[in-house]
């Protein structure tokens, strides 16, 4: 399965625009949502190949979104891979809970768009 | 009749003085009445007695009074001794010595069995609580349960199948859709209570263990409580595991709030760093053809500075975690060269931007080490960063590795300003910076402190050799994986899970920031 469509849920305008810019340049179809509620709705309405999920979001935390989509009895977005992208230093427990339902967990400040593209390609190859 | 106030009337030790007083008054009263009656009779029969007769009457009255008082005292003595014994076992204050059961008086008077009975009753009464609670038929279970709901300490009892037999109100319990109750705690340490109980069933008859700082919810959720958890295990007991939970939220929460402050501050700092690093990286590629002169070099300096900034934020987070014993390290089998590879580009760029010659020679044949790759790469970065800082333009920096016993030694050598021997001892202390470097070189003094913490948490050692004016060599010794693999395999679920996930291509870059 090749990754083509990507949903970004990110409230920082500069960071969001930066990812959109580089992912579009690389040829992906990208939708970007700024708040947690809109992000959750978008994720349920369209089967994206990949979701880039921030944690500290307005309206709904990323952890909550992930729990709703992947943590219930049924995986609501089985076709969508998830990379958690955060700058927030979560507690050990909170991170472990998110990691269980995600395919990756990255600190944004440690990764440039170029490296993010490399990670997505790696994820694509592993699938 | 004198009316005593109720509290006094209820005291055991009030009986004897009052009884003694009343009995003596009665005895003397009876004596006086009998004497007056006798004199009246004599006067009626012999209206004018002689002086001799008066003397005989007086002597008679005196003797009979003395005798009757003596008899009264003798009659009162058993009462005195019995009440004394009762005062003694009641626990009330008393100036009397408790009656000695072997005193010859008690033997003669046959009072001994009575005293024995009193003392025996006292002993059996004090032991009665434990006697009833071991007998399941007479346990007032509902009463005890009701009483336990009035304490802030949580009490949970598990049967031998691990089901909750009893939990009081203060215990953190969750109930699922089927009505099954379970202990609502997040054990972020090995062993968890489930693992511990499972182990005890295998190996022990009786065991106890304490966990500190166990939370019922993850950080940031409302009504989060933090407990010290004490568990005792008794094989064969109906309640096989008894868990006591002491709520220390008030003690632990402020520390967590401090931690939150640093986490939030780091979050704020990392936002702009993300954008700066991201666009620098992008623009560096996109503008490659249009930059000229020193613009390329200036670009590199921007990139290096942004990278260092993000490294410092990580140092602050790690130091904060380490100081609060929250720094967690997840060891796995890795190569020194692979650790270095994660920061190689960054280090090359840094050295280049600051005109240092960085030479890295990590031999192919080195054994693998047990290390937390992500945090260890930060240590490498800190040491190389220091080597750059404390050396001169054009100076060379060497990164080498050799095997030494059960360890792989990784060394970072510079030929810079070096340090006098008297500062070496303080070098790894927090915020320590040598006198001279304070004036000439920027820095926080936190890099070596957290590096030592990380290396030692990895089971390694860090050391330094230095000659003033000639340079320094920092050496990290990391355990060879084969020498610790047994211990690692046995060290529990967290490490195991980490190993499995890493090998399946799981992606993460945050290994050092263990909360």
Number-wise, the strands of chain A total 5
CATH topology of chain A: Rossmann fold
Biggest chain contact:
A-B, 36 and 39 residues
Specify the CATH homologous superfamily of the largest domain in chain B.
Answer: Histidine kinase-like ATPase, C-terminal domain
Largest sheet of chain B: 5 strands, antiparallel
Q: What number is the mean pLDDT of chain A?
A: 90
- In what range is the share of β-strand residues of chain A? 15-25%
CATH topology of the largest domain in chain B: Heat Shock Protein 90
Helicity range of the residues of chain A? 40-55%
Helix content of chain B: 40-55%
Mass-distribution shape of chain A: globular
Quaternary assembly: heterodimer
Compute the number of helices of chain A. 5
Number of helices of chain B: 18
The best one-word shape of chain B is rod-shaped
What does the radius of gyration of chain B come to?
Answer: 43 Å
Structural commentary:
The complex is a heterodimer of chains A (127) and B (515). With 127 residues, chain A is an alpha/beta fold. Chain A contains 5 helices and 5 strands. Chain A has helices spanning 13-25, 36-45, 62-70, 92-101, 113-126, and strands at residues 5-9, 29-33, 50-53, 81-86, 104-107. Chain A has a 5-stranded parallel beta sheet with strand order 2-1-3-4-5, sandwiched between helices. Chain A is globular and about 35 Å long. The N and C termini of chain A lie close together (7 Å). The model of chain A has no long low-confidence stretch (mean pLDDT 90). With 515 residues, chain B is of the alpha+beta class. Chain B folds into 3 domains: 6-128, no CATH class; 148-247, Beta-Lactamase (2-Layer Sandwich), CATH 3.30.450; 327-503, Histidine kinase-like ATPase, C-terminal domain (Heat Shock Protein 90), CATH 3.30.565. Chain B is built from 18 helices and 15 strands. Chain B has helices at residues 6-9, 15-45, 51-90, 104-109, 112-126, 128-134, 141-148, 193-203, 249-286, 295-323, 336-341, 344-353, 373-389, 421-424, 435-440, 447-457, 481-490, 493-503, and strands spanning 154-158, 164-167, 173-175, 181-183, 206-215, 226-234, 241-247, 332-334, 357-361, 369-371, 396-404, 407-414, 461-467, 471-479, 507-508. A 5-stranded antiparallel beta sheet of chain B has the order 2-1-7-6-5. In chain B, strand 1 (154-158) and strand 2 form a beta hairpin. The interface between A and B is large, with 36 and 39 residues. Strand 5 (104-107) of chain A pairs parallel with strand 15 of chain B.
């Amino acid at each position: 399965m090749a990754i083509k469509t990507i949903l970004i849920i990110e409230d920082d305008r500069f960071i969001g625009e930066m990812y959109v810019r580089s992912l579009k340049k690389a040829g992906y179809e990208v939708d970007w949502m700024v708040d947690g509620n809109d992000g959750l709705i978008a994720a349920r309405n369209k089967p994206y190949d990949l979701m880039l999920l921030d944690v500290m979001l307005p309206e709904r935390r990323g952890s909550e979104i992930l729990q709703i989509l992947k943590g219930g009895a049924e995986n609501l977005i089985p076709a969508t891979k998830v990379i958690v992208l955060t700058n927030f230093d979560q507690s050990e427990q909170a991170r472990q809970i998110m990691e269980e339902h995600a395919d990756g967990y990255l600190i944004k400040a440690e990764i440039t768009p170029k490296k993010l593209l490399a990670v997505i390609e790696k994820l694509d190859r592993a699938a | 009749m004198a009316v005593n106030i109720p509290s006094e009337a209820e005291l055991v030790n009030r009986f004897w003085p009052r009884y003694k007083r009343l009995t003596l008054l009665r005895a003397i009263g009876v004596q006086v009445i009998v004497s007056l009656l006798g004199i009246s009779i004599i006067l009626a029969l012999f209206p004018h007695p002689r002086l001799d007769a008066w003397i005989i009457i007086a002597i008679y009255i005196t003797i009979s009074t003395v005798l009757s008082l003596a008899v009264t005292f003798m009659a009162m003595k058993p009462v005195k001794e019995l009440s004394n014994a009762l005062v003694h076992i009641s626990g009330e204050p008393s100036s009397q010595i408790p009656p000695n059961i072997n005193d010859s008086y008690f033997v003669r008077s046959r009072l001994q069995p009575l005293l024995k009975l009193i003392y025996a009753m006292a002993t059996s009464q004090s032991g009665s609580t434990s006697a009833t609670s071991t007998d399941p038929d007479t346990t007032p279970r509902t009463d005890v349960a009701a009483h336990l709901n009035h304490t802030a300490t949580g009490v949970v009892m598990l049967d031998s199948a691990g089901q909750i037999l009893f939990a009081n109100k203060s215990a953190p319990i969750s109930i699922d859709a089927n009505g099954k109750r379970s202990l609502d705690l997040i054990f972020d340490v090995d062993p968890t209570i489930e693992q511990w109980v499972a182990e005890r069933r295998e190996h022990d008859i009786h065991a106890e263990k304490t966990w500190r700082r166990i939370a019922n919810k993850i950080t940031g959720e409302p009504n989060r409580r933090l407990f010290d958890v004490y568990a005792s295990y008794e094989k064969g007991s109906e309640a096989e595991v008894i868990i006591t939970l002491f709520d220390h939220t008030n003690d632990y929460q402020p520390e967590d709030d401090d931690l939150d402050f640093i986490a939030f501050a780091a979050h704020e700092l990392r936002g702009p760093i993300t954008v700066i690093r991201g666009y620098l990286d992008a623009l560096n590629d996109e503008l490659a053809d249009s930059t000229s002169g020193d613009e390329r070099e200036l670009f590199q300096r921007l990139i290096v500075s942004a990278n260092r900034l993000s490294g410092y934020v990580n140092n602050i987070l790690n130091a904060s975690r380490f100081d609060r014993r929250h720094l967690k390290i997840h060891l796995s089998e890795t190569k020194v060269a692979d650790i270095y590879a994660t920061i190689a580009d960054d280090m090359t760029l840094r050295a280049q931007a600051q005109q240092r010659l960085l030479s890295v020679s990590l031999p192919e044949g080195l054994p693998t080490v047990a290390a937390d790759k992500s945090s260890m790469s930060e240590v490498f970065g800190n040491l190389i960063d220091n080597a750059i800082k404390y050396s001169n333009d054009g100076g060379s920096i060497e990164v080498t590795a050799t095997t030494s016993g059960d360890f792989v030694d990784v060394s970072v050598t510079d030929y810079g300003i070096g340090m006098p021997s008297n500062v070496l001892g303080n070098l790894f202390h927090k915020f320590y910076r040598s006198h001279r470097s304070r004036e000439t070189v920027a820095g926080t003094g936190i890099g070596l402190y957290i590096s030592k913490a990380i290396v030692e948490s990895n089971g390694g050692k860090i050391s330094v050799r230095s000659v003033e004016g000639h340079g320094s060599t920092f050496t990290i010794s990391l355990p060879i994986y084969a020498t610790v693999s047994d211990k690692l395999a046995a060290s529990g679920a967290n490490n195991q899970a980490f190993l499995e996930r890493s090998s399946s291509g799981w992606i993460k870059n945050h290994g050092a920031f263990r909360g």
